[in-house]
Amino acid sequence: MASTLPRLTPLRAPLPKLRHLRRERLRLADGERTTLYVARYDLRRFDVRVVRLPRPAPLEVYCRANGFDEALVGGFYQRPELTPLGELRTGGVVRRHVPFTAPFDDVRACINVDGSRVAIGRRGDLSDAPAGDLLQAGPLLVRGGALVHGDVEGFSAGSHQFDSDITAGRHPRAAIGLTRRNEVLAVACDGRADDEAGLSMPELAEAMAALGAVQAMNLDGGGSTSLVCGGRLRNVPREAHGIALPGGRTVPTAVVFRRR
Fold first, then answer.
1. Mean pLDDT value of segment 144-152
2. CB neighbours of 247 closer than 8 A, spacing ≥ 6?
3. End-to-end alpha-carbon separation of the chain, Å?
4. What percent of the chain has pLDDT over 90?
5. Rounded Cα distance, 20 and 213, in Å
6. Its pTM surpasses 0.85
7. Minimal CA–CA distance to 177: which of 132, 140, 203?
8. How many C-beta neighbours within 10 Å does residue 39 have?
9. Cα–Cα dist 221/219, whole Å
10. Which of 42, 54, 155, 204 has most Cβ atoms within 10 angstroms of its Cβ?
11. What is the dihedral of CA 181, 206, 59, 253, to 10 degrees?
12. pLDDT tens-digit readout, 206-232
């Protein structure tokens, strides 16, 4: 598929005066379009944390109640209790979660935050008992600046743990990445509407690389896709049938960013 880099164009519609947030209109190879919301967090100025919400809530609601202006949806979960799916650690402590089934538990991508150090990679690339916070989701989208091809992490084979095969089709998506400029990229895209195609997993990987990510991974998406900037939800989460979810879906985990 052709590179998305020449097809990322700033929207003319006004945005709030947030220097770290941009909204891009992405034209896909078949002529369809979708909207990306791209927040950049300079690690010299922002701290990053993984949080498990004490009570699952829409991300904007959680942020407002807990004094966070900046956050991105975290990992997957299982119903009905909304138990996090995939390994979860905060402050070096393993939190209650449902593990991914073997052998995928050892290969699916994670973000690990230890103080000012942020790493994104497959679980086997990280310490067995990493310090700080760890959130497992995946798949890995960009590794060492190169696109990751194929379903190496077994999301199709392990789709019984999800509502559907998350690698199939275009949907609203969320991703997190690291750039060479010591930034964290927090990205969400719209979808499931006539003028919002959403992204496939390969298209999301291309978009992250085009935005400058050298490491990037997929997070929870679909109706859970949520990016809060300046205290407001910026994207438009939608159910599978296209109905908008005002305020977003209830989620159990998030990645939060706080200015130092």
1. 96
2. 58, 60, 61, 233
3. 40
4. 90
5. 15
6. yes
7. 140
8. 24
9. 6
10. 204
11. -80
12. 999 999 999 999 999 999 999 999 999
Using CA atoms, how far residue 111 sits from 72, 220, 255, in Å, is: 13, 13, 9
Nearest to 189 by CA among 120, 126, 237, 129: 237
CB-based contact 186:257 (threshold 8 Å): yes
Q: Which two tokens stand for residue 216?
A: 């990037």
